[in-house]
Amino acid sequence: MIRRLRMVRAQRMTIVNAMLAFVVLIVILQLWLLTATMNAYLGGDTATVVPAAVGSLVCLGLNAGLLWYLFRLEK
Questions:
Q1: Which domain holds residue 15?
Q2: Contact 29, 7 (CB under 8 A)
Q3: What's the pLDDT tens digit per position in 1-32?
Q4: 35-50: b or e for each residue (b if 16 or more CB lie within 10 Å)?
Q5: Which one-letter DSSP state was computed for residue 46?
Q6: Predicted TM-score (pTM) of this structure
Q7: Nearest Cα to 16, choosing from 54, 55, 68, 73?
Q8: Which residue among 34, 40, 47, 59 is least packed, with the fewest CB closer than 10 Å?
Q9: Residue 74: which of 2, 6, 16, 4 has the closest Cα?
Q10: Using CB atoms within 10 A of its CB, is residue 72 exposed (0-12), middle (13-18) or buried (19+)?
């Protein structure tokens, strides 16, 4: 029984580490998106603001979904 619990704990840590890697990638993507959008906006291109905001909301949704999955993993 103890051996099985350790294996489950090790599997959970693997899942959490993978989720952390995805969160880091999504945050880096979001920072790049913010930088590119601000550069375009300050250059006079206002057409990129709305698609960038939608993309940022998608990134937020992905991170919120991963957080929800993490909370469900603890149960």
A1: 2-74
A2: no
A3: 566 666 687 888 999 999 999 999 999 999 99
A4: eebeeeeeeeeeebee
A5: -
A6: 0.82
A7: 73
A8: 47
A9: 16
A10: exposed
- Of the two residues 5 and 60, the one the predictor is more confident about is 60
Report the alpha-carbon distance of residue 74 to residue 52 in Å, rounded: 34
The rounded distance, in Å, linking the Cα atoms of 73 and 13 is: 11
The CA distance from 65 to 26, in Å, is 12
Which amino acid is residue 65, in one-letter code?
G
- Residue in this structure with the two tokens 């899942």, named with its chain if needed: 15
Instruction: Give helix 2-42 / helix 49-74 axis angle, nearest 10°.
Output: 170
Tokens linked to 41: 């906006």
Q: Considering only CA atoms, which of 28, 33, 31 is closest in space to residue 53?
A: 33
Report how many domains make up the chain.
1
Location of structure tokens 């930088």? 35
